[in-house]
Model the fold of this input.
Amino acid sequence: MSTSNYFLILLFFFTIHFITLTAASNSSFYFKNFTHSPSLDSVLTLSGDATVSTGGSSLQLTAPLPSSSGRVIYNNAVKFYSGNPRKLVSFSTYFSFSISSDSGNGLAFIVFSDDKLKFVSVEFDTSVDNNNNGNDVNGNHIGIDLLKLGLNNGTRLQVWIDYESMSRRLEVRLSKFGENRPLDPILFQHVDLPKIWPQKEGFFVGLSSVNRNSSQVCNVYSWSFKTRRTPDWMHSEPLDPSLLKQEGDKVKVDGKSDCVMRILSALILGIGLGALGSFVGMFLWTILSKRQPVLPEEYAMKPVVVHDKGLPNEKQ
Done:
């Protein structure tokens, strides 16, 4: 077998390993709506005043009553680590929601362990009494003031929250529903999840809302969550978010990094699949093609050497 065939086989097994690793490490769910079904009830727990709206178009976390609160929790624990060797996972979540007025506490995405004593929350506040003074970052709490952003009028919004395990950075993006995902995050926070829960192997995620003494209603229309594992060939040294340049409340980061990584992963996968296709094609061609026998050479052609001696009368 030629060296090129050995290379193709090696690349084939590398590609299969990469695909298997990615598939085995991912944990995800996606709710386009919340129509009642056994599968929905088995993976989501609603508490407080949270209920499924008529027709299942949304989850209504708070009722139009004073001091209403509600929460939805994904029942399955998300593992901190995956693979061998173990690596801390990254995760991304997306949800769309609306808040009817600006007198309650809004909505929060929460990450907590099974003891519920320590948690990380990303809050979207709508009350001027929350003392946020704009976009507030305090410990493991990230508060985004929708009132300051002019998004407190019941407009349907969408949120992207990404946690990168290498940098221990949690990024938040926000826009009106139907708009494209923003390139730059509106806020980020350095969160070292293993240090918050050093003895835990996993965590839970949920959405929570409290309207205090108002009649604020909070609805969640869709929700998705996905974990992913950093490939072994990438370094895992945490980056220092303090080195990134900040401009006021908005952090300017290289928004192209995620895109570059996706392109690189797709390129590796494409090369592997292309090599696999070439290998299969060459293998089939070798088996099915009919090679013509090489006939023995009957006559050997001797080289003819011509010596130019010049004409007899030519002067020397």
